[in-house]
Design goal:
Layout (H helix, E strand, L loop, with lengths): L1 E5 L13 H15 L3 E5 L9 E3 L13 H13 L7 E4 L16 E5 L8 H6 L5 E4 L11 E4 L19 E4 L8 H11 L3 E4 L5 H8 L8 E3 L5 H10 L2 E4 L9 H8 L4 E4 L4 H4 L6 E4 L2 H9 L6 H12 L1 H21 L1
Parallel strand pairs: 1-2, 1-4, 2-3, 4-5, 5-6, 6-7, 8-9, 8-11, 9-10, 11-12, 12-13
Length: 339
């Protein structure tokens, strides 16, 4: 079976630092190759893959100024004009590629990584009958859409070593944004009398300066910036817990799965997909406010770190994700052949 994987252009695939959609597209592509699939990855020209790489846009849009609409039009049309060469097209580039799905014979499977707003839903609704939608959690399903399945995002487990949490700090790992709860993480750490390390891309500069910067210092609340995968592995494994006090219905939460892959339990606000990722009381704690999170910190040593890693490998490994998607590709192919 010949598969085309369409990745976003914002960051390299895989990303050097931040880039969750690109990361998932990369892990899936390499997992499919390991399973013997014939895969072509459509991504930026500097992407790294064992698959065949095809690119018309050389540099990630997040690294220099360019017209994103022009880049994405060239990127998407490059694949769609070659659609007949593939048995299935796997779209990780949101809703724009759907506008081709009724014009080509090759089936398109779209992983919906979340909805930036309700405004984009009409496009998904229009192509319900011409595409196959996959949600990344059961909690992130829109009632107006028809879904083929839910497939949890996978991780390359080789990039995550088991850690013992020996440095006994709390870790915040994610975008610096009100929705992700950076300020709340700081309050949890202060009230727990624990050191906090913050890592992530600043997406809201005003929020960072008003709600984060006043607490930063060299000892108790430290911001390390947007760290690379090697630093991520070390930081996650050495932490006693990951704090994830989100204030929105998060579709998945890669850092949560990454932390558990390193054996690090997670204390998260119970919103969105968190109850699908975390086993409350076994791989972390699901709480509803800062006070409950502070209490959870006092119980974190009771969580078995080996159980966290086993849970993550069984549920979020690259092989699990690749196998699940291959099954869906085959299901789609059987449907097409029966028509």
């Amino acid at each position: 079976m010949k598969v085309a994987v369409l990745a976003p252009l914002t960051w390299r695939t895989p990303p050097r630092n931040y880039g969750p959609w690109e990361q998932v597209a990369s892990v899936l592509t390499e997992g499919l190759v390991k399973e013997g699939m014939d895969v072509t990855l459509f991504a930026t020209g500097d992407s790294v893959t064992q698959a065949t790489l095809n690119s018309v846009w050389k540099k990630p849009l997040g690294e220099y100024q360019a017209d994103a609409k022009v880049a994405e039009c060239l990127h998407i049309s490059n694949l769609m004009e070659r659609a007949s060469e593939f048995d299935v097209i796997h779209n990780h580039l949101d809703f724009l590629p759907l506008t081709y799905s009724a014009l080509i014979r090759t089936p398109v499977i779209t992983t919906i990584h979340g909805f930036s707003s309700e405004d984009i839903v009409p496009v998904f609704k229009k192509y319900n009958a011409h595409s196959h939608y996959v949600s990344i959690s059961n909690s992130d399903r829109h009632p107006d859409l028809q879904y083929l399945a839910t497939v949890y995002n996978g991780l390359d487990e080789a990039q995550f070593d088991f850690g013992k949490g020996e440095e006994d700090y709390l870790l915040y790992f994610g975008r610096i944004h009100p929705h992700k709860g950076t300020h709340e993480a700081i309050q949890i750490a202060i009230q727990s009398n624990k050191k906090l390390i913050l890592c992530g891309l600043i997406q809201d500069q005003s929020y960072f300066e008003e709600k984060v910067v006043p607490y930063l210092n060299d000892n108790s609340v430290v911001y390390l910036g947007n760290v690379c995968p090697q630093q991520r592995n070390q930081l996650l494994g050495s932490a006693s817990a990951l704090l994830h006090p989100i204030s929105f219905e998060e579709p998945f939460g890669l850092s949560v799965a990454e932390a558990m892959m390193c054996g690090t339990p997670v204390i998260a606000f119970e919103r969105g997909s968190m109850k699908e990722l975390i086993i409350d009381g076994e791989t972390g704690f699901l709480v509803n406010n800062i006070e409950a999170a502070v209490m959870a910190v006092t119980h974190i040593t009771g969580i078995c770190r080996h159980k966290c890693r086993t849970h993550a490998i069984n549920k979020f490994s690259s092989g699990v994700m690749a196998t699940r998607y291959i099954s869906l590709y085959q299901q789609i192919a059987r449907r097409r052949n029966s028509l």
